[in-house]
């Protein structure tokens, strides 16, 4: 793309302009419908083992159990570390692992 700039004194300069954005590498997909209520649902906790999930998840699980009757929490240890040496394999197998365990919702936590 070229842009022409008019400078004071009537002089014009033409410069090449490059747009730094690349084409999209991933196509957009329709999001899953939201659950109206977590009562009676199976909720999986996923964690990258980087920041205080061992403290946060038990408190969150207690709160969710108080708020939603019959909710079942599947702890992060069931799935393993979402960040590490086998991260690609773990994430690649996640859809099947969630389906096999009949998971209705996921809470995924990432450290910083």
Intertermini distance? 40 Å
Query: Roughly how much helix do the residues carry, as a percent range?
Result: 25-40%
Largest sheet: 3 strands, parallel
Main structural class:
alpha/beta
The run of helices and strands is EEEHEHE
Contiguous helical run count: 2
Question: What is the molecular shape?
Answer: elongated
Total count of strands: 5
State mean pLDDT (0 to 100 scale): 84
Compute the CA-based radius of gyration.
24 Å
Give start-end ranges of low-pLDDT stretches: none
Strand order of the largest sheet: 4-3-5
- How much of the residues is beta strand, in percent? 15-25%
Question: Mind explaining what this structure looks like?
Answer:
- The structure is a single chain.
- The protein has helices spanning 53-67, 87-100; strands at residues 2-6, 12-16, 42-47, 72-74, 105-109.
- The protein contains 2 helices and 5 strands; from the N terminus they run βββαβαβ.
- The chain is of the alpha/beta class.
- A hairpin with a 5-residue loop joins strand 1 (2-6) and strand 2.
- The chain has a domain at 37-112.
- A 3-stranded parallel β-sheet has the order 4-3-5, covered by helices on one side.
- 26% of the residues lie in helices and 21% in strands.
- The chain is elongated and about 75 Å long.
């Amino acid at each position: 793309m070229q842009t022409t700039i008019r400078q004071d004194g009537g002089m014009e300069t033409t410069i090449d302009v490059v747009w730094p954005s690349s084409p999209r590498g991933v196509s957009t997909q329709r999001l899953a419908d939201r659950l109206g209520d977590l009562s009676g649902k199976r909720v999986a906790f996923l964690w990258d083992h980087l920041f205080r999930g061992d403290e946060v998840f038990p408190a969150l699980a207690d709160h969710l159990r108080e708020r939603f009757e019959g909710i079942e929490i599947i702890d992060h240890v069931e799935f393993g570390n979402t960040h590490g040496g086998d991260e690609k394999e773990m994430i690649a197998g996640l859809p099947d692992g969630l389906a096999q365990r009949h998971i209705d919702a996921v809470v995924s936590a990432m450290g910083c």
